[in-house]
Description:
This protein is about 50% helix and about 20% strand. The protein has helices at about 5-30, 40-65, 70-85, 90-105, 115-125, 135-150, 155-180, 180-185, 190-205, 260-270, 290-300, 315-320, 345-350, 365-375, 390-405, 415-425, 435-445, 485-500, 515-530; strands at about 245-255, 270-280, 280-290, 305-310, 330-340, 355-360, 380-385, 410, 450-455, 460, 465, 470-475, 480-485, 505-510, 535-540, 545-550. The chain has a six-stranded mixed sheet with strand order 13-12-9-16-14-15, with helices on both faces. It has a four-stranded antiparallel sheet with strand order 2-3-1-4, sandwiched between helices. A four-stranded parallel sheet has the order 6-5-7-8, sandwiched between helices.
Amino acid sequence: MPPTLDAPAVRAWCRLALQALGRAREEIDAINVYPVADGDTGTNMYLTVESAAQAVDAVFDGHAASGTEPDLSSCLHSMAHGALIGARGNSGTILAQLLRGMTEVLASGSGDLRPALRRAAESAYQAVAHPVEGTMLTVATAAAEAAAATADAAADAWAVARAAYEGARRALAATPAQLDVLGNAGVVDAGGRGLVAVLGALADAVSGQAPMGPLVDALPKGPALPFGCAPGGDTGDPHVVPGGPGFEVVYLLDAPDTAVGGLRRRLDGLGDSLVVVGGDGLWNVHVHVDDVGAAIEAGIEAGRPHRIKVTHFGDQARAHDGGRRGKRGEPALRAVVAVVRGDGLAALCAEAGAVVIAVRPGEPPASGEIAEAIRRAYAREVVLLPNDVELRHAAGAAAEQARTEGVRVALIPTRSAVQGIAALAVHEPSRRFDEDVVAMTSAAGATRYAELAVAETQSWTMAGVCQAGDVLGLIDGDVAIIGGNLLETGITVLDRMLAAGGEMVTLVLGAGAPADLAGRLEAHVRDSHLAVDTVVYAGGQERCPLLIGVE
């Protein structure tokens, strides 16, 4: 257990935080009622941390190429910069400033999380034009105070991080009593809940232990009012605060630090929910206004605004309600976007009419790449097939991004390419969208999946200890069989799967599979299992000699 936060722990922190926010994203979105009930806080925080994690991964990749190890300072600065340029929404922007505040202290090499957490909370308050208690700012302050209260001056990073996490949990549970809109809705603050997930990931990262488990077990579970529907009847557009601004304006700004004070004053007079974070010449600006032009002009007067994004809250409401995009040269009614590994699988899915994201070995697509593929599909309705359990969070965030742009997206949680193939086989664009999604989901769910892999090192598995070079048979994601060669292991996997029944076997051959493997497995199915058909595809996927599906 490392006594302080080091470079590998920063990388682990980003990855664990991304996983935690991915698991909680939809729940956090659903309780997002303040400052605007636009149902995107979980998504925005996920995308912000995803950008931070990518920046840290890039540092490690660069050092790996030269055979060196990155230092703590470079990792922290990359994390903070990645969060800054990728910050989304009010909550993501505040989170970026919290990470920057921690970096200002930790990059000096002190390794003490207590002053870092205190600086993070202070800088976040300074970044918000009109701080409100009962929000993630309150949770950040409570985390810093709990960390500072750790009695032992020499307490290690895990003890401090754990104390901060517990303090944040307690503060989060109290937020409904501090902010009327939360109490009326019976929910805790969405941004604060996301921050608890990030702090829990920090404690896990420095401890090296398994994640702490479900987020905030004993929180109020009142009737969350999705996307701002207030008690007592219709309030019109649920995404617009009564009497409040109608647009969210966000941009990055290249400007000297001396120009930011004037920018804050100008924007504060134009609207609300103003947050300006950053420093050293690069800033992220977030504000809610009615006069979009004036907000952008204020940025031009201060420096050079870029990556400008304007969202009308009414448009966002219609997107969450399953609305359609406006006409733009008559986009197609419906499309399927599929994530696949291997040239053969890519060609197969493309031939079936899908827009394909071809995954390179060791380089899973980020949510932005998946969202861009949805845009490239140029359709009003999109079915998204991630085809990998590890991509479910990124795919979910991408789907949410597309919905804010007016695309109706259905995410079918396919966990393997064979489930995606089954879903594509029953896809029928002429059906109603909901009916098509139900049919595709049913087909995917009725397909059990397995794969063969070759162990690279000795390790413990659900089936016992494997040695490097052993062939592993994974059924529904778990190692079920340890074998000596591909053929014998494949036969054992097929027999075990077909023992529970099945009418169709799908075999997808990887790039390194022996030429006769499919034929011999097909012959075994024909000879040993009556009335079971077999179909074979050349998938070309790396690192996985064989994928198996049973329907």
